[in-house]
């Protein structure tokens, strides 16, 4: 039976998704209508797709860390990764990728970056941790900065205490309140400096800077002579752990060196994008032609469902947002075949039921109900494969796995809901007389 409300809902949602995915075309149409009439049609929100390094152009940098003097190598690499990721974010790069590769290498992908040399200089610096104390006019500077004044003045001054004096920072919990805190253990030289520092700064701020930026501004509650301090505050466990990681990254003398640099020009990225889009369009056309040739009217319905599928998937890519790479587009094109595969199972079963002499209504019902188990199992196994690839591989393969996984889940919706509701439009006594269309 036709669910008219659901069918109308699918059509309305599909039209809206088309405007969201292709706003330029819809906005041009709105401008044309507004020029001829006084309707004042609004524009669709133009939210762009995100493209990766291989499509947008940019730089791929590979660094190697010197971990010869480090015991906790994985923690050291995590700390370095965190610091470099924060540095990269200052460039305003679209979807920067900072990944640990192997035991001592760090890959940095900067899509669309222009000043590559500046990026290399900043990323290549070893993280630097400093403890700073208030100046005589610190409070006046801070109050002025809150008003947007004296922004170029540094409110804190150097103390000589820095990352080489910090032995360890770790997440701990207050034994009474169970609130998350960060404990600091200083070496012998650092303990002496810290004792003097806390003695002369009671009830004042000691700011902790990493790479020239404050990451914590605790107030000294008492003199600390033994080099063991606690930073408390309204932390969540995740925030306290992140602060400890940043402190450790600044304390670790882990130099990194650039061992590989690859620059991809915007023209090469644009050419790759054009070829990928052509492949997607041709894939859609050939799949549609195959379905119409072999399954006739149901094939046309499957093409309509496939168009709805494409609109839903591209909308998800924009909203998540998914960073599209060549591998990701390959996953999308492959998912087109998966989306049609479900319709093939349904239509093949329908054809068998029609040959057995059943009515269109019975054949359609049997086609969907009996093909469902095969559709479910094939999609679940493919999704599991995509999930494993996403969890245990590098960024290039992750892009492929993510787009494939999204496509698999979406095709379940379009095959079982969209295809069925559109196909029900053609079930009735009129079409019983022209069964050859099926």
UniProtKB/TrEMBL annotation:
Q: What is its main location?
A: membrane
Report one GO cellular component: plasma membrane
Q: Which GO molecular function entries does the Swiss-Prot or TrEMBL record give?
A: protein-transporting ATPase activity
| NCBIfam families reported for this sequence | 2A0604s01 (TIGR00916), secD (TIGR01129)
User: What role is this protein assigned?
Assistant: Part of the Sec protein translocase complex. Interacts with the SecYEG preprotein conducting channel. SecDF uses the proton motive force (PMF) to complete protein translocation after the ATP-dependent function of SecA.
Q: Which family does it belong to?
A: Belongs to the SecD/SecF family. SecD subfamily.
Quaternary structure and partners: Forms a complex with SecF. Part of the essential Sec protein translocation apparatus which comprises SecA, SecYEG and auxiliary proteins SecDF. Other proteins may also be involved.
Keyword terms of this UniProt record = Cell membrane, Membrane, Protein transport, Translocation, Transmembrane, Transmembrane helix, Transport
The record's section on HAMAP family has:
SecD_B (MF_01463_B)
What region holds the SecDF P1 head subdomain domain? 158-254
Under InterPro entries, the record lists: SecD (IPR005791), SecD/SecF_arch_bac (IPR022813), SecD/SecF_CS (IPR022646), SecD_1st (IPR048631), SecD_SecF_C (IPR048634), SecD_SecF_C_bact (IPR055344), SecDF_P1_head (IPR054384)
Q: How does it sit in the membrane?
A: Multi-pass membrane protein
Protein name as catalogued: Protein translocase subunit SecD
Sequence ranges assigned to domain Protein translocase subunit SecDF P1 in this UniProt record = 78-134
Q: Name one Pfam family in it.
A: SecD_1st
Where's it found, cell-wise?
Answer: Cell membrane
Q: Where is the signal peptide?
A: none
Which SUPFAM superfamilies does this chain map to?
Multidrug efflux transporter AcrB transmembrane domain
Parts of the chain that traverse the membrane:
279-295, 300-320, 326-348, 380-400, 406-427
Q: Which GO terms describe its biological process?
A: intracellular protein transmembrane transport; protein targeting; protein transport by the Sec complex
Source superkingdom: Bacteria
Domain Protein export membrane protein SecD/SecF C-terminal residues, every copy: 256-423
What's the encoding gene here?
Answer: secD
């Amino acid at each position: 039976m036709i669910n008219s409300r659901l069918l109308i809902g699918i059509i309305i949602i599909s039209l809206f998704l088309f405007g969201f995915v292709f706003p330029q075309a819809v906005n041009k149409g709105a401008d044309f209508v507004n020029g001829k009439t006084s309707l004042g049609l609004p524009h669709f929100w133009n939210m762009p797709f995100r493209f990766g390094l291989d499509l947008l152009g940019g730089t791929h940098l590979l660094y190697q860390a010197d971990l010869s003097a480090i015991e906790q190598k994985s923690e050291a690499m995590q700390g370095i990764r965190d610091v470099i990721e924060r540095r990269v974010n200052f460039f305003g790069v679209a979807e920067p990728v900072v990944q640990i590769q192997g035991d001592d290498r760090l890959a940095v992908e900067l899509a669309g970056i222009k000043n590559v040399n500046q990026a290399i200089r900043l990323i290549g610096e070893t993280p630097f941790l400093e403890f700073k104390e208030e100046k005589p006019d610190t409070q006046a500077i801070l109050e002025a900065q809150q008003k947007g004044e004296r922004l170029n003045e540094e409110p804190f001054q150097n103390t000589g205490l820095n990352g080489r004096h910090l032995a360890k920072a770790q997440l701990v919990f207050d034994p009474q309140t169970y609130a998350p805190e960060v404990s600091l253990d200083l070496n012998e030289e650092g303990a002496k400096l810290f004792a003097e520092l806390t003695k002369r700064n009671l009830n004042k701020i000691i700011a902790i800077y990493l790479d020239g930026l404050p990451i914590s501004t605790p107030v000294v509650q008492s003199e600390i002579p033994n080099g063991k301090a606690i930073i408390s505050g309204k932390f969540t466990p995740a925030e306290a752990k992140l602060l400890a990681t940043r402190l450790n990254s600044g304390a670790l003398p882990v130099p990194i060196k650039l061992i590989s640099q690859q620059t991809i020009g915007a023209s090469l990225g644009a050419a790759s994008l054009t070829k990928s889009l052509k492949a997607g369009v041709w894939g859609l056309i050939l799949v549609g032609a195959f379905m119409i040739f072999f399954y006739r009217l149901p094939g046309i319905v499957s093409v309509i469902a496939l168009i709805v599928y494409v609109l839903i998937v591209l909308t998800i890519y924009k909203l998540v947002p998914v960073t599209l790479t060549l591998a990701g587009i390959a996953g999308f094109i492959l998912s087109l075949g998966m989306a049609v595969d479900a319709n093939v199972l349904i239509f093949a079963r329908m054809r068998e039921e029609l040959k057995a002499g059943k009515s269109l209504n019975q054949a359609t019902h049997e086609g969907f109900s009996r093909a469902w188990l095969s559709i479910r199992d094939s999609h679940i196994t493919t999704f599991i494969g995509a999930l494993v690839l996403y969890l245990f591989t590098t960024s290039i393969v992750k892009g492929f796995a993510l787009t494939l996984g999204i496509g698999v889940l979406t095709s379940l919706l379009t095959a079982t809901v969209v295809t069925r509701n559109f196909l029900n439009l053609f079930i009735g006594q009129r079409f019983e007389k022209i069964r050859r269309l099926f």
